[in-house]
Structures are given as structure tokens and as C-alpha cells.
Write a structure and sequence with these properties.
Layout (H helix, E strand, L loop, with lengths): L1 H4 L14 H8 L2 H6 L7 H20 L7 H12 L7 H24 L12 H11 L6 H11 L5 H8 L7 H28 L9
Helix pairs in contact: 2-4, 4-6, 6-7, 6-10
The protein binds ligand EIS.
Length: about 210
């Protein structure tokens, strides 16, 4: 868990605005987190997240002052793109990225809450399925839903996953879960705040891929 704890998300200010630069900086470590799943099968997922981050950063870099917060990016693009918005630019990239972040949030929360299959306590399937249903399933057509099921069977054992989160060091599961709980405080607040912006600005799209 050293991996995530070394790159904490920032505590949100009272107005719950998410600052773009520190957000992108904290997210840039998520692809390494996906490496902890241990298989190259997850490379397309990593590429997805990296692609979203690159797109958001490209827009931010055009005017860091104007796009200081994620909400300002949505507002700026709404003005700029008219009827194409929100299926455009960083607004679209963040729409998908936030679903991946919610996946990670629900997955880690479920682990931290000790949810498990009592007959196979070392499997992650219950946690992964819960995360998928809460984040992405609704936006995937039958083909990607089938791919998800196939990928799920390649997930590592829980002990393996927790060990690689701790960069291979032997730490007790409970110690690692305690660190996950700490990480989740600011991470969950950030993900929830992004969802609130999309809801407030009517920027969420329901289409399936
Ligand atoms: C978006 O992708 C692009 O992201 C966006 C723009 O091009 C837009 C246009 O419509 O499309 O088609 C992509 C979609 N992204 C839409 C699908 C990619 C394949 C992903 C494979 C799906 C498998 C299910 C994932 C479940 C993983 C199970 C893990 C089991 C252990 C610790 C775990 C962390 C896993 C995090 C999972 C995140 C998955 C993210 C998928 C997102 C998705 O569905 S734009 O691009 O605007 O930047 O140009």
C-alpha cells in the first residue's frame, strides 16, 4: 500500500473544488497501481486511463490559469464547444476517467470493509464485481460486459494483490487495509466531488460502448 499512500489525493477545500494540477499529478500514479494486478491483460485498461489523463492535461496546459479547477474546464469547454458539449475534449475524457476512479474507489472500499466470498476468501471476484456494477457496467454493451467477466477470472489472489501494493514487502493484510482506508478518505471525496460537478452541470452521458 506504500504505492498509494506515497501519492495521496489532496484534501478538498470547503467549496469542494478539485484543483486540476494536483489532481492530474495524483492520478498519474494510478497506472502503476494497475500493474499490481500483475498481468499484461490489464494493459488496455492502463492505456485507457493514461489516454484520458493525457487529454485532460493537454486542455489544462492551454491555459492553466483559466482551468485551475476541473469544474472550470467543464465550464470553459461548454462555452467553447456549444452543442457538441459534453461529448468532447477534456469533459469527455474526465467523464470516462471518473468511472474508472469510481471502480477503484468501490473496489478498495469493498476490500477495506472486509467483503469476501466466505467459501473462497482469497478471491477478489466479489469486490471486483461490486466495483464494476457500481461504475462501468451501465455504460458497457454486452460485448464489453463479457470481456469484463473474462478479465475478472485473471484477477490475482487478494494476498498477492495486497503484497504488490506494498511493493513486495511482507506486511500484514490488516496493516495494508488500514492504509487503504486512509487513502480512501481524500480519494473518495475527490471522486464524489467530480460526480457532483457532472450531475450539477448535466454533463453525464448515458450512451453505451
Ligand atoms: C472512452 O472509452 C475513452 O476513454 C474516451 C473516448 O474515446 C470515449 C468515446 O466514446 O470512449 O471503450 C472503452 C471505454 N472505456 C470508453 C473501453 C475500453 C476497454 C476496457 C476494458 C473493459 C474491461 C472492464 C474493466 C474492469 C477491470 C477489471 C479488473 C479486475 C481485477 C485495481 C483495478 C483497477 C481497474 C480499473 C478499471 C478501469 C476500466 C476503465 C474502462 C473505461 C471504459 O470503459 S478520450 O477517450 O475522451 O480520453 O479521448
Amino acid at each position: 500500500m506504500a504505492l498509494l499512500m506515497d501519492h495521496q489525493f489532496r484534501q478538498l477545500p470547503a467549496d469542494k473544488q478539485v484543483e486540476t494540477r494536483p489532481f492530474l499529478e495524483a492520478c498519474s500514479y494510478l497506472p502503476y497501481f494497475i500493474d499490481c494486478l500483475g498481468s499484461t491483460i490489464f494493459a488496455p485498461i492502463k492505456a485507457e486511463i493514461t489516454g484520458n489523463l493525457t487529454k485532460i492535461k493537454a486542455v489544462y496546459d492551454t491555459n492553466p490559469g483559466k482551468y485551475k479547477t476541473l469544474q472550470q474546464i467543464l465550464e470553459g469547454e461548454k462555452d467553447m464547444h456549444g452543442s457538441q458539449w459534453p461529448k468532447v475534449g477534456a469533459t469527455l475524457a474526465l467523464m470516462w476517467l471518473k468511472r474508472a476512479l469510481r471502480f477503484i474507489q468501490v473496489f478498495l472500499q469493498s476490500l477495506a470493509d472486509g467483503e469476501r466470498d466466505e467459501t473462497n476468501p482469497n478471491l477478489l471476484r466479489i469486490n471486483v464485481t461490486k466495483a464494476y456494477e457500481a461504475s462501468l457496467m451501465h455504460y458497457h454493451g454486452w460485448f464489453l460486459q463479457k470481456i469484463f467477466k473474462a478479465i475478472m477470472y485473471t484477477a490475482p489472489y487478494k494476498t498477492e494483490f495486497l503484497k504488490s501494493l506494498s511493493k513486495g514487502r511482507e506486511v500484514k493484510d490488516e496493516e495494508c487495509l488500514e492504509k487503504i482506508r486512509k487513502f480512501l478518505i481524500n480519494f473518495s471525496a475527490t471522486v464524489d466531488a467530480i460526480y457532483d460537478v457532472y450531475s450539477k452541470m448535466h454533463a453525464e452521458l448515458e450512451y453505451k460502448v
